[in-house]
Write a structure and sequence with these properties.
The protein has 118 residues and is mostly beta strands. The chain has one domain. Strands 1, 2, 3, 4, 5 and 6 form a six-stranded mixed sheet that branches. Strand 4 and strand 5 form a beta hairpin. The longest helix has 7 residues. The protein is elongated, with a radius of gyration of 16 Å. It starts with 5 loop residues before the first strand and ends in a 7-residue tail after the last strand.
Length: 118
Amino acid sequence: MKNRNVNIITDAGGKLVLINDIRFKAKANAAQSIPELIRIAANPKHEANRKEKHKTDAVYGWYRYNIRFALPVYDDKMGKVTRHNIYSASMLVRHANDDRKYLYDILAIKKEMSSPLK
């Protein structure tokens, strides 16, 4: 994972993934750092399967994990990073019949209203 411009750091709120040099939407940016997000995922909560359509691919249900990541905010005139906005989200993982867990989606992405990371 060389030259990925992604770091795991700790701030006052705990661990978060810091994504550098990316200028897109929050979910697309989060997808750029999936290995790091999986490493810092916290507070797993198991849920039974609710939909019939998933009975074969999520035999053992689902897990939701809490994740946090930061995205840079650039100064349009200077092209430099002025701060980072911090986001929290829920990572949805299916528990398949082979007893392995597979990332399914990143949901409920919310910008934290705390002070931005500088």
